[in-house]
Amino acid sequence: MTEADINWPQALRAAENSAAVGGLRGVVLDGLRIALRDRSDVGEAQLEDFAQESLVRVLDRLDQFAGRSKFTTWAHSIAVNTAFTELRRKRYQDVSLDALTADGDQLAEATVMPDHASDGDEERARVVAALRRAIAEKLSPKQRSVIAGELQELPFDQIVELLGSNRNAAYKLAHDARRALKAHLAAEGISSEVVRNAFSV
Amino acid sequence: MKPLTTEQVQGFVRMVELTRDRELDCTECRSLFAESAEKQLAGLPMDEALALVRQHLSLCPECNEEFLALEEILRGSR
């Protein structure tokens, strides 16, 4: 029987599921080896840990598998999230909530988002100036903090932790902020076409 | 806060421009990863769900990183 022939949800729910659990663990581990083969900082022991943690999560979420893909693809997606979330923690920077809030407060300042960043192009400078005004006038302090964190390439999970929020609420905060900024550009007569042409979007 | 680089400002403007009223959040997007990656790899036409996934990936580097890894696994497993 090949991997594709196995009814994984049924096999994993069976009273005697040790063969299925072991088989899936091997599938997940092989996938992680492929996904992380270029990461010299990840050794076999850590891959095994990721596979084990992923397996626990897959078993916990069996009822969420809706059958819209192969079961193993779904399990790989959980494994990738498990491994990358943990690896991103290593990229956490030493930033406090106070510092992130202060960064957000400074975001609209020309010293932080300078005109020279627009390469002297008049249209680009107009867009950047409008964005600075919108950041100052249209965003809440928390929205500015999220945007400041994203711009400094903090891992989003770290921004979420600093804000004491959850990932989806923080994403909504960022999404609402981007929408407000985009609406402000439109209100100032800066169309999508102008932005796309000026910044080669 | 340190002054933003040209690349950071340009990336920010790009993110604002690519913003849509309806976007998936990270959890919604990841719940569609498996079927989207399979469809993409099979070269099936882009449906609404895949379009929303791609839109989220264009704005979320972390989800994008994970989606690319999943595609890599599927390619490597074939």
Q: Concise description?
A:
The complex is a heterodimer of chains A (201) and B (78). Chain A is mainly alpha-helical and 201 residues long.
How much beta of chain A, percentage-wise?
under 5%
The oligomeric status of these chains comes to: heterodimer
Strand content of chain B: under 5%
Distance between the termini of chain B: 47 Å
Overall helicity of chain B: over 70%
Largest sheet of chain B: none
Give the tally of β-strands of chain A.
Answer: 0
Give the chain pair forming the largest contact, with residue counts. A-B, 56 and 42 residues
Q: Write down the overall geometry of chain B.
A: globular
What gap, in angstroms, lies between the N and C termini of chain A? 49 Å
The residue fraction in helices of chain A comes out at 55-70%
Radius of gyration of chain A: 23 Å
Taking all residues together, what is the mean pLDDT of chain B? 92
The total beta strand count of chain B reads 0
What does this structure look like?
The complex is a heterodimer of chains A (201) and B (78). By secondary structure, chain A is mainly α. In chain A, helix 6 crosses helix 9. The longest helix of chain A is centred in the C-terminal third of the chain and has 21 residues. Chain A is elongated. The termini of chain A are far apart. Chain B is mostly helical and 78 residues long. In chain B, 74% of the residues lie in helices and 0% in strands. Chain B is built from five helices and no strands. In chain B, helix 3 crosses helix 5 and helix 4 crosses helix 5. The longest helix of chain B has 17 residues. The radius of gyration of chain B is 15 Å and the shape is globular. The chains are: A mainly alpha (201), B mainly alpha (78). The interface between A and B is large, with 56 and 42 residues.
